[in-house]
Specification:
Blueprint: H1 2-9, E1 14-16, H2 24-39, E2 44-46, H3 53-67, E3 83-87, E4 92-96
Parallel strand pairs: 1-2
Antiparallel strand pairs: 3-4
Organism: Escherichia coli
GO molecular function, one term: endonuclease activity
Keywords: Endonuclease, Hydrolase, Nuclease
Length: about 120
């Protein structure tokens, strides 16, 4: 049935959310799907609030393998979220996305106790 599933993805957009939560097994499957989608000329949209640099590197590399490209993931600083990365056959475009002012907020954090207590 696997071939039928893959046929169902042809000419479609692969959309996956919360990809930072994938374990090693699911990450391997996701990378394979991304590579296959790219090889077929299809799009992939991946969503994550806390994607690590290592995960980003692997996912960009998977898409690059599918397009037979040599793209590399951008280096992400810890304060760079939200972040948008657009990978094509020949290039990687990345930039920080500004938070909308109407949803931006500050949260005060304080200690309830100290290590000395």
């Amino acid at each position: 049935h696997n071939n039928l599933r893959l046929l169902g993805l042809s000419n479609k957009i692969l959309l996956a959310d919360e990809i930072h939560a994938c374990d090693a097994y699911m990450s391997c499957i996701l990378e394979g799907l991304i590579e296959r989608q790219a090889r077929g000329g299809n799009s992939v949209i991946l969503l994550s609030a806390t994607l690590s640099q290592q995960q980003c590197d692997k996912l960009v590399a998977a898409f690059a393998r599918g397009t037979e490209g040599q793209q590399e993931a951008p280096f992400l600083e810890k304060d760079d979220y939200p972040w948008l990365t657009h990978v094509t056959k020949s290039d990687v475009h990345s930039h920080r996305v500004a938070t909308r002012k109407d949803v931006e907020r500050s949260v005060s954090v304080g200690w309830l106790h100290s290590e000395q207590e």
